[in-house]
């Protein structure tokens, strides 16, 4: 039995899954993920969407749920307050740079009331820094895998 010329490879499936899950986590649409990964793989967004829904989505159910929870937690905890700079008013933080800037701002603005430190806030900031490091490592891994897939695809 011969393999179809347009058959999906394991690397293409991995790239599609990682991008869709990342887009879910970042609050972007799956359709946008299909469009972007389709460009990288020279496939149509419809082909990517069909592959995702027909073959991959069920395998990544737990990762999808975690991405949705992360997106919700991120949006709940880091929506910029009305007292923020005008260019960020009413928007959620959307990039690591914005998250880092907000954490730095909180660090500078933090003033303990009556000499008592709010241990919970400090612990939350530390936890967020750890999560940020984890996300940065994930982004690096995704970028590396994406580059590998693109190099294989272009050769």
From TrEMBL:
Asked whether the UniProt record includes DNA-binding among its keywords, one would answer yes
The record's keywords, sorted A to Z, are: DNA-binding
Domain named Myb-like: residues: 1-56
Which superkingdom, per the lineage? Bacteria
Q: Which InterPro entries match?
A: Homeodomain-like_sf, Myb_dom, RsfA-like, SANT/Myb
Keyword DNA-binding listed? The answer is: yes
One Pfam family this chain carries? Myb_DNA-bind_6
As one GO molecular function, the record gives: DNA binding
**What residue stretches are annotated with the HTH myb-type domain?**
1-60
Where exactly are the transmembrane stretches of this chain? none
PANTHER family noted in UniProt = PRESPORE SPECIFIC TRANSCRIPTIONAL ACTIVATOR RSFA, PRESPORE-SPECIFIC TRANSCRIPTIONAL REGULATOR RSFA-RELATED
Q: Which NCBIfam families match?
A: DNA_bind_RsfA
Name of this chain's protein: DNA-binding protein
Q: Which organism is it from?
A: Alkalibacillus haloalkaliphilus
């Amino acid at each position: 039995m011969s393999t179809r010329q347009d058959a999906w490879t394991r690397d293409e499936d991995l790239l599609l899954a990682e991008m869709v899950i990342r887009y879910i986590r970042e609050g972007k649409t799956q359709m946008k993920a299909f469009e972007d990964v389709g460009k990288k793989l020279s496939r149509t967004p419809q082909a990517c969407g069909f592959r995702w829904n027909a073959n991959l989505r069920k395998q990544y159910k737990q990762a999808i749920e975690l991405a949705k929870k992360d997106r919700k937690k991120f949006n709940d905890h880091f929506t910029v307050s009305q007292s923020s700079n005008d260019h960020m008013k009413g928007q959620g933080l959307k990039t690591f740079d914005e998250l880092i800037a907000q954490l730095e701002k909180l660090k500078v603005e933090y003033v303990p009331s009556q000499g008592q430190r709010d241990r919970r806030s400090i612990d939350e900031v530390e936890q967020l820094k750890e999560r940020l490091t984890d996300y940065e490592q994930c982004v690096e891994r995704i970028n590396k895998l994406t580059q590998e897939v693109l190099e294989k695809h272009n050769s």
